[in-house]
Amino acid sequence: MGAVTTAVHAVNGLTARWAGVSEGGTVFSAAGVWPLLAHLADGAGGVARAELAETLGIPARQAAAGARELLATMDAMRGLDTALGLWTKRTLQLKEEWEAGLPTDAHGILTGDPTADHQALDAWAVKRTGGLIDRMPVTLTEDTRMVLASALTMRTQWLSPFHEVELETAYEPWATKPRLGLWRSSAVLDRVGVADTPGGCVTELKVLGNNALDVHLLLGEEGMTPGQVLGAGIDILAGRSAVVRGPQLPYGHVGPGLRVERVRCTRPTPPSLKVTTAAYHLNASHDLLRLHRLFGLTEARDTSRGHFPGISDVPLAVGSAEQSTMATFGALGFEAAAVTAIGAVGGGLPDLRYVTTLISAAFDRPFGFLALHRHTRLVLTAGWVTDPLPYPEYDGEDEW
User: Fold this and answer.
1) Which of 344, 374, 339, 296 is nearest to 89 (CA)?
2) 399 in a domain, yes or no?
3) Is 252 exposed, middle or buried (0-12, 13-18, 19+ CB in 10 A)?
4) Which of 3, 68, 99, 395 could potentially form a cystine with 94 if both were Cys, beta carbons 3.0 to 4.6 Å apart?
5) C-alpha span between 129 and 322 (Å, rounded)
6) Which of 173, 175, 118, 123 is nearest to 144 (CA)?
7) Does residue 255 lie in a domain region?
8) Domain limits at 271?
9) What CATH number has the domain bearing residue 67?
10) How far separated are the first and last CA of the chain, in Å rounded?
11) Average pLDDT over residues 103-124
12) Residue 104, CB half-sphere, CA atoms under 13 Å: how many?
């Protein structure tokens, strides 16, 4: 298994574990966290080094190289922009070998003035995400000696756009007010499928982008948790869960939100896949230290002593670790961004003579999504949709 493939499996594994502790509507990016943890592991020692290596899924001595190869792979993906940034106080002397593992243009200076420094870091976040994230998610104090940050932005346009409609749903929390639905029809049946997973059946729909950045929508059986549904999506990507694709599905209700039926029509018509889903816009902020065990940062939080002798002779501990993320799924495409920062501190009756097959897929209650690169299967962002966009109200002024 190559280094990039190993890193992809490691990032996707962290995505699944993060999903398992997520609650409510959210969006997050393990791909934005993993390279930062890898560079920290490269300079860590003792228990902190072992904890970070366990989270990363690779030995700490390979972490920095793995991060560089992963970022280089991501940088080559069309529609995806990534960046890594490092800021230190002038008095912090870094180990040359550790600093050499970072991009040459990544290093900036912290003045020690939290207000001025935050303005500079915010400007970096805005520039690196095209304005999708407007603030660096880091807590700065006069004791902050180093900030290590990543930015990730993905944009894609659908190969086949959706039509905006009012979402029809029996799910009561969504039915209380009109929601913006998306609808389209396709003759490509294998975009949809059903997997029988340990937690229950999951319907997967692939929505393909024009630059190999895709979004997989995932609807589980009622009662399945976000962790079970998104974890099933990761297992499908890894080939651990078999999927019965559209052309092989039997007739009837064959999966969550999925029905296959024979319908009569007026002329010879190829089988079709009709999809209804919800448009959504999500924003989320994550305190990674609240989930310190998940991210291998338990020991590194201890500010009574240093944990990163490979970064500097000055004792360093992790004082903050946060991520800001957003995602928008609309009729024409998808965009998402994540900035992660780790701070180190001290009609009619037709003649229906023909028959065809119709597959109907409806994502009309809470569902998950994985936004990923089609060829490497690297998950860039993941999330859970609980509050779709409202259906726009028109005042009629533009009507003739």
Assistant:
1) 344
2) no
3) exposed
4) 99
5) 16
6) 118
7) yes
8) 157-279+349-385
9) 3.30.497.10
10) 62
11) 91
12) 0
Model pLDDT for residues 184-228, shown as the tens digit of each residue: 999 999 999 999 999 999 999 999 999 999 999 999 999 999 999
Look at residues 283, 359, 344, 246 and name the one whose alpha carbon lies nearest to residue 37.
Answer: 344
Q: How many CB atoms lie within 10 A of CB 288?
A: 23
pLDDT value, residue 246: 92
HSE value, Cβ hemisphere, 13 Å, CA-based, for 167: 31
| Same-domain status, 203 and 340 | no
Asked if 261 and 292 sit in the same domain, the reply is no
Contact criterion met (CB below 8 Å) for 279 and 181: yes
Query: Tokens in use for 75?
Result: 């940088």
Q: What average pLDDT does range 245-255 have in this prediction?
A: 93
Q: What is the pTM of this model?
A: 0.94
Residue 391, class by beta-carbon neighbours within 10 Å (0-12 exposed, 13-18 middle, 19+ buried)?
middle
Which pLDDT band holds residue 53 (cuts at 50, 70, 90)? very high
